[in-house]
Amino acid sequence: MRYARRVVPPPLTITVVLHERDSRAADVGYVLWPLVDVWRESGHTVHVAHGVVDLPPADVIFLHVDLTKVPADYLAATAAHPCVINRGVADIAKTAISSLLVAGPEDTTGPVIVKTVKNHGGRPERHLEARDPAQKLRDSLARRGWLPLGFRDWLDPYDYPIFASAADVPARVYRNAALVVERFVPEREGELYAIRSYSFLGTASIAERTLSPRPIVKRRDAVAWEEIDTPGEIVALRQRLGFDFGKFDYVLHQGRSYLLDVNRTPAFGHSPARLRRQGEVLAAGLHGLLRD
Question: Hey, how many other C-beta atoms are within 10 angstroms of the C-beta on 185?
Fold first, then answer.
């Protein structure tokens, strides 16, 4: 009997590109860090670069810039490289990915939710982008609750405002280019709310469903979670949007899947043991991208 010889992939040199001002990256629970640990233990070389000046030679560039829109100079600096992870997803604004947008008070019936156009409530931009004195003053007023919703350009992503109808949303919100209104389409199980997540790198993925008593379902408030299968339409949507690595959050509402959020720099609040397991699963997906 003949046995197929196991092919061991050669060691790679991987460069992770962070934003030049992302001094907090090492302290954030990015899903990427357990993957980096696994790759290094497997014999691969991983460099971490802040910015794109004098990037070291690499087989793979991991564009891990925690902003809604990747700056043009980062895209230009990596454009000629043959293998850049998430090259095709420079913009993950809600206006670019959402199918639930509400244009005005007469546009829909039922509950709605107000979010920021920018990812994660606009928080990454507050940390990484330069802000002028006027913006800093607005931030201070917003933190104290002294700035009306319609004048805000960032929100608490753990507490997005929910309204009974589009007509109840302050009119100024619809004119604020930093905010969007979406139909609120919760997935329910009894008194609990549910959200489904699809985390992936190349050919590897992890899918979970999380239950919480709060309508904005976050891991820190979870009362239960389970592993699930990912529906074909969500996988197909990932392919259409061009994601190599990231996490999609979605719900199943009245028999239909609705995408709520996409993230190319996901972070989890899991225990170190669970993060390690996820890292082992997802790290193996990198070679599937290289074969493509």
Answer: 18
How many CB atoms within 10 Å of residue 39?
A: 21
List pLDDT tens digits, range 207-238. 999 999 999 998 888 999 899 999 999 999 99
**What SS3 state is found at 40?**
helix
Residue 85: φ, ψ to 5°: -70, 130
Topology of the domain comprising 13-85: Rossmann fold (3.40.50)
pLDDT digits (tens, 9 = 90+) for 231-271: 999 999 999 999 999 999 999 999 999 999 999 999 876 67
- For the entire predicted model, the pTM comes to 0.92
Q: Where are the beta strands (DSSP E) in 19-89?
A: 45-50, 60-63, 84-85
CATH topology match: 13-85 vs 187-291: no
Rounded Cα gap, residues 108 and 184, in angstroms: 11
* pLDDT tens digits, one per residue of 147-162: 899 999 999 999 999 9
CA distance 215 to 219: 12
The domain locations on the chain are 13-85, 101-183, 187-291
Asked if the 187-291 domain carries CATH number 3.40.1160.10, the reply is no
